[in-house]
From TrEMBL:
Domain SHSP positions: 26-138
Similarity remark: Belongs to the small heat shock protein (HSP20) family.
Pfam families: HSP20
Organism (species): Phytohabitans suffuscus
Protein's name according to its UniProt entry: SHSP domain-containing protein
Amino acid sequence: MLMRSEPFTEVNRIAQQLFGVPATGTWSRPTAMPADAYRNGDEFVIAFDLPGVDADAIDIDVERNVLTVRAERRPIDLGEQATVQLSERPLGVFSRQLFLGDALDTDHIDAAYDNGVLVVRIPIAEKAKPRKISVAGRERTEQKVITG
């Protein structure tokens, strides 16, 4: 049996029950989907924390430069004899939207999921990459005045 020794956890549980959050063992309101984003060379990388989510329960869409990630954390099968003693892991559908700049090539997005982390890689568009611009010089011609 699991002992409850954190008073604030118990207060939070009671507050959730009073304000209409579903009871233990059912779907609960999901919490935020934490993410890190950074530029690495010629690509933009976003890493989302999705622990306990199956890869087939992740959906990624891009529409008009808006990246939407949806993931569903499903309940585990506890069996008929199980009695829940503690349930703090949120279940349900998580969703996160990020607005992407025009400098990204949204036609070539790559995503990989490993150890509860979804990594989305978006290449920098060719038009946004730094490039050298040659400067053309104007030849100076001298005008000679002929007197005579």
